Automatic annotation (TrEMBL):
Identification of the protein by name: Putative glutamate--cysteine ligase 2
Membrane spanning residue stretches: none
Entry function: ATP-dependent carboxylate-amine ligase which exhibits weak glutamate--cysteine ligase activity.
Any GO MF annotation of the entry: ATP binding
GO biological process: modified amino acid biosynthetic process
Source species, domain of life: Bacteria
Native species: Streptomyces fulvorobeus
Enzyme class: ligase
Catalysed reactions, as listed in the record: L-cysteine + L-glutamate + ATP = gamma-L-glutamyl-L-cysteine + ADP + phosphate + H(+)
Length: 396
């Protein structure tokens, strides 16, 4: 997660007119560290981070397992800036991993089985507390995510905006699905990461909240029941960040393609801005049935982009392509205002022709090399020529 967050904590009066008009965004991405010969994840996070911080400072950090690292971007105003920033931090992580003889792999779950049966959990008090509280539930909790932050400093407004965002969370799962394989097994799901997370009472869609105070009361009750570690830091899929002036969206698998990440961030920002305006008009958001929302999550995790999901606003089946078209139509004025409409439309067209990350992984698995080809494809895509200044690495 973001460190001190000092880069976000800027006085609004110091922003220029463009910054006040266009909220800044930032992203976090988690990656696996993979041996290019065995294709298994390797517990080398602290060593890789120690190398990467020399280039990008605290924009890289350790993650829950030693198999992973996390990078984050600075706050950006345009999607062009965000792409350049993401390319820069990815390149630093690629270089640091390479110096350890490893490769970077952007996938929601490890494709092949780790050498060790249980994840090598990082040395952090919060991680150790999680092990004590959740026990065997964390035995295969080696998952990698993409989080998007949108500048929204009014925490009351952010909570109510989350009510409006809840119905769209299953669509975000489908758009980002990139974890069909787990420890050498084809799960039959597009996002097995989402299934792993669904077992935890403190993860997934947030409850409907009437106000910031109600949101905090619900978190406190969850923490008192020991279903949540810390009421001050809930891990729901939408949250006003505990330390940053942002609304954070957390439901997505990490995406392999940088351009997919940037385009999906543009769509998320436009949605946040649109619903924040609805809140300003007095609309607290639809009270979507929580059970139906969880069912929609499951359907999105199982079938992914090419399947049909549940439109929780109407309680009817609907293809994810049609749901995406509805969302784009809903937020189109904001996308046009920020010059992001073509970026999002191109992303959706790319999904229709190329498929999602899960579809790509299945296509690579169809070759003679099987799962090794999946890992090789992910490595090459994570370190593709689109990351300017980095050459694709030759996988052994």
């Amino acid at each position: 997660m973001y460190g001190t967050g000092a880069l976000w904590l800027r006085d609004a009066e110091a922003m220029d007119a463009q910054e006040r008009e266009i909220p800044t965004v930032g992203v976090e991405e988690e990656y696996f560290l993979v041996d290019p010969v065995t294709r298994s994840v390797v517990s080398a996070g602290p060593r890789v981070v120690a190398r990467a911080v020399l280039e990008v400072g605290d924009l890289v950090s350790e993650e829950f397992t030693g198999y992973q690292i996390e990078v984050k971007t600075r706050p950006c105003t345009t999607m062009g800036e965000l792409r350049a920033e993401l390319v820069r931090v990815r390149a630093a992580a690629v270089s640091a991993a390479g110096q350890e003889g490893l490769r970077l792999c952007a996938s929601g779950t490890p494709v092949t089985a780790p050498v060790d049966q249980a994840p090598d959990v990082g040395d952090h008090p919060r991680y150790r507390a999680g092990l004590k509280q959740y026990r065997a539930m964390l035995d295969d909790f080696d998952i990698s995510a993409f989080h998007a932050h949108v500048y929204l400093p009014d925490r009351e407004q952010a909570v109510l905006a989350g009510n409006h965002l809840r119905p769209w969370l299953p669509l975000l799962v489908a758009l980002s699905a990139n974890s069909p394989f787990h420890h050498g097994i084809d799960t039959g799901y597009a996002s097995w990461r989402s299934v792993i997370r669904s077992r935890f009472p403190c993860l997934g869609p947030p409850p409907y909240a009437r106000s910031l105070a109600h949101h905090e009361q619900l978190a406190a009750a969850m923490a008192a029941s020991e279903a949540m570690l810390n009421a001050g830091m809930p891990y729901w899929d939408i949250r006003p960040h505990p330390h940053l002036p942002t609304l954070e969206v957390r439901s997505m698998d990490v995406l392999t393609d940088v351009d997919d990440t940037v385009a999906l961030t543009a769509l998320i920002r436009a949605t946040v801005v649109t619903v924040a305006h609805r809140v300003e008009e007095g609309d607290r958001g639809p009270q979507v049935c929580s059970e139906l929302l969880r069912a929609a999550y499951w359907r999105a995790a199982r079938d992914g982009w090419t399947g049909s999901g549940i439109d929780v606003l109407t309680a009817t089946p609907m293809s994810f392509a049609d749901q995406a078209a509805q969302l784009v139509a809903y937020v189109r004025p904001v996308l046009e205002r920020y010059n992001d409409l073509d970026l999002v439309k191109t992303f959706l067209a790319r999904l229709n022709t190329r498929g999602s990350g899960a579809d790509l992984q299945h296509s690579w698995n169809g070759t003679q090399a099987g799962l090794h080809a999946v890992v090789d494809g992910l490595i090459q895509a994570t370190t593709s020529p689109s990351i300017k200044g980095t050459e694709p690495l030759t996988v052994q």
